[in-house]
């Protein structure tokens, strides 16, 4: 079975509104969730949604509070998310960073006490749409052991960078581990194996079992390079923004616990450095040079291909996910089957 893009957004919005989340915030969560699925990051899309519902029921996602700005200057802000949906907090944080960048040239906003926000690139995309450069970072539950260590104390700590251009979608969105933890969670749900070179079990041995990998350690990409980048992100999204760090980070993978991670959003206005059209023209010139060098790709190309494919064909709903979503819908008197398309 599969669900088409417009149906997925409508379904998530209806579920959240029936649970009491206001329409504006429900649509933000739905849009961010759909964005993940369209780009092919299904581990962070509707497949993650049942975990959000469980977190609401446990009181770990708050649907009624408002965010608080605890510190602020013309260029920076620190936001307390008060346990709200991570997507809602992150959306507002990036919008605030963009507004500050438009005023001063650069805006930097940190958040704490928010929840898992989906794919990092959704928020750097918000900056692109307003002709600003977007940079987003987050820390997560420990999943990687330090080089030479055996116990995970660092998250998969993603980073996303988006650059505005005239024609080309330029976007980097990556975990600092070889694989995002969400892909392991998805493989576990589907009963699938994982590649044997991305994770270790609790004894430090390579494993293809996602359950054993989740108990053990995911490997950093590029060895010391991925580890080093994850280390730096941990400090920027932990101590700097009054969030947890290291082994104190919880709730991004296990929704039975309160989420304690932090996020950091940067927006840069290129027009404060150079005319925006000149910046875009030079950016496109560089892209043409890159493409002329061979059968190459630009960061963002793969996402564009996935979006085109998934908008046309829809998003696959595997059997286990179907059961989970139907149970949620049944509890809310929503006819889940009305939203699905038979393959």
* Range of strand content: 5-15%
Structure class: alpha+beta
Number of strands: 12
Instruction: Give the strand order, joined by hyphens, for the main sheet.
Output: 2-3-4-10-5-6-7
| Overall geometry | globular
What is the alpha-carbon Rg in Å?
A: 20 Å
Figure out the total of helices.
11
Helix content: 40-55%
Mean pLDDT over all positions: 94
Largest sheet, strands/sense/barrel: 7 strands, mixed
Regions with little confidence, pLDDT below 50 for 5+ residues? none
- Series of secondary-structure elements, N-terminal to C-terminal: EHHHEEHEHEEEHEHEHEHHEHE
Distance between the termini: 5 Å
Question: Could you describe the 3D structure shown?
Answer:
A hairpin with a 3-residue loop joins β2 (68-72) and β3. This protein has a 7-stranded mixed beta sheet, sandwiched between helices. A 3-stranded antiparallel beta sheet has the order 11-1-12. A two-stranded antiparallel sheet has the order 8-9. It has helices at residues 5-19, 23-38, 49-57, 86-104, 121-128, 181-190, 210-215, 224-236, 276-292, 301-313, 319-331; strands at 2-3, 68-72, 76-80, 106-112, 133-138, 159-163, 170-174, 199-200, 217-218, 262-268, 315-316, 340-341. It is an alpha+beta fold and 343 residues long.
